[in-house]
Amino acid sequence: MKTYSIVLLLCLLTPYLGNAQENFIFKKAYDLKVLGRVSEDTSHFQRIDSADLQNLPPAVQRYAKFSAGMNVVFKTDSKSIKIHWKLKKMNTLWNMPSVAVNGIDLYGWNGQEWQYISSGRPNSEDNQMIMVENLDGKMRNYRIFLPIYAEVKDLEIGVLEKTTLSPPDTALVPSSKIAIYGSSITQGIAASRPGMAYPSILSRRLDFDFINLGFSGSGKMELPIADLLAKIPAQLYILDCVPNTLPEQVKDRAYPLITRLRMLKPEIPIIMVESVKREISNWNSAMYTRVNGQNDEYRKTFDKLVAEGYQNIYYISTSELMGDDHEATVDGTHLTDLGFMRISKTIERYIKDSIAPLQ
Amino acid sequence: MKTYSIVLLLCLLTPYLGNAQENFIFKKAYDLKVLGRVSEDTSHFQRIDSADLQNLPPAVQRYAKFSAGMNVVFKTDSKSIKIHWKLKKMNTLWNMPSVAVNGIDLYGWNGQEWQYISSGRPNSEDNQMIMVENLDGKMRNYRIFLPIYAEVKDLEIGVLEKTTLSPPDTALVPSSKIAIYGSSITQGIAASRPGMAYPSILSRRLDFDFINLGFSGSGKMELPIADLLAKIPAQLYILDCVPNTLPEQVKDRAYPLITRLRMLKPEIPIIMVESVKREISNWNSAMYTRVNGQNDEYRKTFDKLVAEGYQNIYYISTSELMGDDHEATVDGTHLTDLGFMRISKTIERYIKDSIAPLQ
């Protein structure tokens, strides 16, 4: 009884390391189904293939290698699932847990929705962890979400000997894509774990492959991003790229960006998302004036596009994004899971409205 | 214009360091109003004074020195507020941001409620940060929340020369206390920042001084905690101490704990809170059996107390705590801000119901 107690105690408050005696057979994750990449014909775990990065700013080129929004879907009847993931480097952010920066999340399809199972704790550049055991052994579909702020060098899924590990049921593989272009908030800073970045929440709730093109400190509406976006065969583009773009940059860049994207993709709806309102601007009068200028310029761009007859362009105001209790961020700027759940629900509604006329 | 752009850019995505030329006058925080401590007659920033720790388990003695739930209230007409906080040691958790472990939060009274202003980023054991500037210079009340998982050695509030810094308006100092005894979840792992632990959320929403007696990996219903709880002149006791207590421990300890507390405090209501349901138990059949036993034993204790005629004891089921989307935790066990907001709303309702008959 003593031993039982100690084992349970360890289970409760430390990550679950599982039974070391079991033998796992590993398969490379890119032999299963990898979602969330611009280019699918690659074995790299980076959002944008290096060949497509040439005309983009240096920061975007660097962050594009981080696996934000990428996820792997598979099915197995194994009673235990182990993940082996290697990072180029463990990164650290002051406003985000290491498990979101460097770790992984496991979800399972419960017959109706993707349900959270467990999180993979990062300890070093080379991590192995039994994510779950004592499953019932039925064939089920699973999905893992990759690190938000680290570069994944290798990723393997392990299942018990004499069980099956294969690509997922085709019904659970989205046939259409949605691309979201934005800042660190889009990338997923400061989610608590990889699956809680808002594009990843949406990817579980809606039948689309979401391509996360959020870049920390970047996403500044440079014109070449229009060509990259157009390269993605998306059913919808979401432009959440105001937070790092100065008011005069929004004024100069938003209209060329959107009209070029519209020229390259005449039929595809576009959702423009204002910047979340920074909490400090409610107190610091100088910040209030500066920050509001960004959204003002974005709104003017939208009004101009509408006045010129552009159609299928939707606009989400900052007032709809974060709730009204001022508690949705970790630092006044970056949404926590509380904020990400709120922004997800709003954007989900707009996605449905913008896609509906086409279906 | 170039300089302006660079300044704005730095403001947007780095912590706001403010204007170095301003001269700040500092005052020790314990000369203002410190809330969240069992013993008020001390200049230490620890929840339980060392003299009161003797009969408690070693882990509780250790964690009691962490400033979880402690907060300082003051008023000033300064246009800038700077905080200087010294830690014994910077700590690291894999499932929680450093700003929640080691940092601070600033809130301001907006006339109706405590509203978030900014977070203090921890960089070392000795941190100074301008939390806000360009305030309007009106006399206002402010409140800072201290680190959840670190020991604060010293804390000073700085305001600009020729301005006032003093204890807060008496109307904003609660005259009654609520004590919450529990696990790491009560302590506040894995809030995104100090103010988002659920006892701290409640302390802003309700006019009580909340004493956070949550202890990571502990809170196992040892009998001496009843005497410590009874020492606090509380209007309500909340017992959220199931998560780390094994089923057989709950069976052995819950009844003696609660009946002793009731004997020492015959009139004070008690709210018993079940453990949050661990997400892994929905998948791992062995964990399901083990974890459910904890709440089953707690419920049996409640039923026994009711059958024996004990009154003013309230009970919150696990089904009311986390929502039903399985997204409220960082690791299957520890609530994120999303989960903390949900559990706060439920417990707030029970607090109002249990206090109402006495008022």
UniProtKB/TrEMBL annotation, chains A, B:
Pfam families: GxDLY, Lipase_GDSL_3. Residues 30-164 form the SGNH hydrolase-type esterase N-terminal domain. GO terms for molecular function: hydrolase activity, acting on ester bonds. InterPro entries: GxDLY (IPR032740), SGNH_hydro (IPR013830), SGNH_hydro_sf (IPR036514). Residues 1-20 form the signal peptide. It comes from the Bacteria. It comes from Sphingobacterium paucimobilis HER1398. Residues 177-352 form the SGNH hydrolase-type esterase domain. This is Hydrolase. Keywords: Signal.
